[in-house]
Design brief:
single chain; alpha/beta; eight-stranded mixed beta sheet; 16 strands
């Protein structure tokens, strides 16, 4: 049996950021993830300048494709708004692998099935033990479901999304966001990326979609037709992937003993844009600082909004 002071379950941005901070301080930690990296990860890949600052990396030092947008084209029920201010987009297959390797922590491919309490801390599948346990396994995190789901359920809105990233050799490099278009309780996006890749998708409040008798598939088909009509995508065999996640709720602390939840395992995505990478990184760093004895674990200082004012909060529309 392998013993480490800290075991982090999940090697995405939250887990990798937490491990990076711990390794810098000389803490023995291990990352477990059911996938082997680099692994495909469908995501718009929106990264704010604050994310790069938190990771202490300058844009020109990032070794992979980093698309820069000097402004965003936002459409509010069809009304156009130009939102200035540099933003970035990455490809998650590259970003997550780079961030994981940069952490300096050892990584083991392992799908966690059972977590139990022992005198020394926590035992995982009879193979790994740790004094501290960090749950960074996303929406379906086994740490959340074992220790928090009954006593600390997520309180944010559930979002359902469909998206696809593919090589398109795009000609239009402007990032576009459509809010509440065609009655969608959320927004749709067109995100061109370096190297000719394109990410398109739709996301909306699951409960509101159900109440309106529509589905995310309906809104995906509407988006594809819109993009084809505008000449932004050509005809192809679209194969979008679906997933769910949670927006920021009213709980900011998910800690029990020496167990910490971070990133999407809590549900920290921002209320306006559904941005998850930034809050994931910040919560991972917060958990690491708490383990190191620097402060009480809390995510209350993480912004609930990314770019837009509160009247565009699509979680409740």
């Amino acid at each position: 049996m392998r013993h480490h002071r800290v075991i982090i379950i999940g090697g995405g941005p939250a887990g990798a950021a937490c491990a990076w901070k711990l390794v810098q301080a000389g803490v023995d930690c291990l990352i477990l993830d059911k996938k082997t990296f680099p692994r495909p990860k469908i995501c718009a890949g929106w990264v704010t300048p604050e994310v790069l600052q938190d990771l202490q990396v300058k844009p020109h030092d990032y070794p992979h494709s980093l698309t820069s947008f000097p402004f965003l084209k936002i459409f509010l029920k069809g009304f156009p708004i130009i939102r200035p201010g540099k933003q970035y987009a990455i490809r998650r297959v590259e970003f997550d692998h780079w961030l994981l390797e940069r952490s300096g922590a050892p990584v083991m491919p392992h799908e966690v099935k059972e977590i139990t309490l022992i005198d020394q801390g926590y035992l995982i599948d009879g193979k790994y033990s740790a004094e501290f346990l960090v749950g960074a396994g996303g929406t379906h995190c086994p740490v959340y479901h074992t220790f928090f789901s009954k006593t600390h359920p997520r309180t944010g809105a559930q979002i359902v999304a469909l998206e696809e990233e593919f090589y398109a050799d795009w000609q239009d490099g402007d990032c576009r966001l459509w809010f509440f278009d065609n009655g969608l309780p959320g927004y749709a996006w067109y995100v061109p990326k370096e190297g000719g890749y394109l990410n398109i998708g739709v996301g909306g409040n699951a409960a509101a979609l159900k109440d309106r008798g529509s589905s995310i598939q309906d809104h995906w088909e509407y988006l594809v037709k819109k993009l084809q009509k505008k000449g932004l995508v050509s005809e192809r065999d679209f194969q979008p992937e679906g997933y769910i996640y949670y927006l920021r709720g009213n709980q900011d602390q998910y800690k029990r003993g020496n167990i910490f939840l971070i990133g999407d395992s809590i549900g920290l995505a921002t209320l306006d844009m559904g941005e998850g990478i930034g809050p994931a990184v910040q919560s991972g760093l917060n958990a690491a600082e708490s383990i190191l004895g620097g402060k009480e674990y809390s995510n209350s200082e993480i912004n609930k909004y990314s770019l837009l004012p509160s009247f565009l909060q699509w979680a409740v529309r």
